[in-house]
Specification:
The longest helix is centred in the N-terminal third of the chain and has 26 residues, at 2-27. The protein folds into two domains: 52-127, Copper binding periplasmic protein CusF (OB fold (Dihydrolipoamide Acetyltransferase, E2P)); 150-310, Glutaredoxin (3-Layer(aba) Sandwich). It contains seven helices and twelve strands. α4 (189-205) packs across α7 (298-310). 31% of the residues lie in helices and 25% in strands. By secondary structure, the protein is α+β, with helices and mostly antiparallel strands.
């Protein structure tokens, strides 16, 4: 009986093992499938690890039409951004339904690899009187940049400390944009620089592409953005100094160049907010195109530069 019982146990054990084996074949992924599963999990995990969140306090300066973004003068965000005035996208419009300019708020800033937004907005109950300012007039960008304008001969300074005049690029198509190195919000100044990086790569890879083109990134924060700071910033990108320069200069000259280019700046005790402009100037020195946005416009910049490089500006 004991032997029969033992045999039965062995038989049941073998059957059970067969069922387990079949179960493993059904539920456990094959090596290739396992790799795919692990890769997907890794991508999800990596994506989540790229996201950063910050608790921020600031005073609302303006609510944009539609309630999808707000300009906020915020305090220093440790480990991320100094105190300044910046526009922030709002995750959902009802976040700021009851918020008004002058309200002090607390909020969460979420930053991903290529986007950012604020949520969890709460009013602190404190209201700050806003200073009345007269913004600089916006210059229409359908006019030509006059070749004899004094700024054309003024010597700005590039990232390696060399003097650079705008007139020295005569015969080259130019793309000009305005930024500052302390701006970390991915869809703002970093996106403008990324556009130049991608446009540069696109032009270099283009068959029979013109070579008479140059990119100019002009800082609007010259007191901080010294040539050394610009040089350090340029290292973040695939930067070819033969085709891409970062410029700084005296505050009044930078402000004049920005104003002539349609940039409005509102410096306020070291805080900065500005609109966006990327200008395309043809080889003859005439304004060909203005992109009044940030976003991914690298393809547009490259295609416009190709046309601008072939134009004599006649």
């Amino acid at each position: 009986m004991r032997a029969c019982w033992s045999a039965g146990v062995l038989a049941r054990s073998n059957a059970a093992q067969k069922m387990i084996a079949q179960s493993e074949m059904v539920w456990l992924p094959r090596p290739g499938q396992l790799f795919i599963v692990l890769a997907v999990l890794c991508l999800v995990s990596c994506r989540q690890s790229e996201d950063r969140t910050f608790s921020v306090r600031g005073v609302v300066q303006e609510i944009k039409p539609g309630g999808q973004s707000a300009v906020i003068r915020h305090e220093t965000i440790p480990g991320y951004m100094e105190a300044m005035t910046m526009p922030f996208d709002v995750k959902t419009t009802n976040e700021i339904t009851n918020v008004r300019p002058g309200d002090e708020i607390e909020f969460r800033l979420v930053v991903t690899g290529d986007d950012s937004w604020i949520d969890r907005v709460k009013k602190t109950g404190r209201t700050v009187a806003l200073a009345v300012s007269n913004p600089a007039p916006v210059v229409t960008t359908n006019a030509s940049i006059a070749p004899r304008h004094p700024l054309m001969e003024y010597a700005f300074t590039n990232q390696i400390g060399q003097p650079v005049t705008l007139s020295s690029f005569r015969g080259q198509a130019l793309a000009i944009t305005f930024f500052f190195t302390r701006c970390p919000i991915p869809e703002y100044c970093p996106r403008l620089s990324k556009n130049f990086e991608e446009a540069c790569a696109e032009l270099k890879a283009m068959p029979n592409a013109p070579t008479n083109w140059h990119l100019l990134s002009v800082t609007i924060d010259p007191e901080f953005d010294t040539p050394a700071a610009l040089r350090l910033y340029a290292k973040r990108y695939d930067h070819d100094p033969k085709h891409w320069s970062f410029l700084t200069g005296p505050k009044d000259r930078i402000a004049e160049l920005a104003r002539e280019s349609g940039i409005t700046m509102q410096p306020d005790q070291g805080l900065l907010t500005h609109n966006f402009r990327t200008l395309i100037v043809d080889a003859g020195g005439k304004l060909q195109m203005s992109f009044p946005i940030s976003g991914d416009i690298s393809d547009g910049i490259a295609s416009e530069l190709v046309k601008a490089a072939k134009s004599g500006g006649d």
